[in-house]
Write a structure and sequence with these properties.
Structural class: alpha+beta
Strand order of the largest sheet: 1-2
Number of helices: 2
Shape: elongated
Number of strands: 4
Radius of gyration: 17 Å
Strand content: 15-25%
Order of helices and strands: EEHEHE
Length: 107
């Protein structure tokens, strides 16, 4: 599986890869976390493009700095309120971390 993350303080990205790629050492049954900065972003994106056919299922996780606004008005229920709160804050804030996990039918 592979993951791509951007930590809170800066433009660093990381992704872990569960398979060998020409630019990596072999890792048996272990994920690999790689540091990605502005200077090697294109190279790391190429790695993801190379493995996406082998790992066609992708899970994504994002992190935002917090809640700065709460929606007002009538909502159909708690889940609608929570969705509108999330949507409002996502629209207003910049993402601080992105996680990608790539996997196939074998895991």
């Amino acid at each position: 599986a592979a993951g791509l993350q951007q930590p809170q303080h800066g433009g660093q990205l990381q992704h872990g890869v569960l398979m060998e790629h020409p630019t990596m050492r072999a890792q048996t049954n272990k994920g690999r976390i790689r540091e990605v900065w502005k200077h090697n972003l294109e190279e790391e994106m190429a790695v993801l493009r190379d493995i996406v056919d082998k790992y066609p299922y992708i899970a994504m996780d994002t992190e935002f700095p917090g809640v700065v606004a709460r929606p007002m008005g009538s909502f159909r229920g708690k889940s609608d309120y929570h969705y509108q709160c999330l949507r409002t804050n996502v629209d207003m804030l910049k993402v601080i971390q992105i996680g990608l996990t790539l996997f196939n039918e074998d895991g």
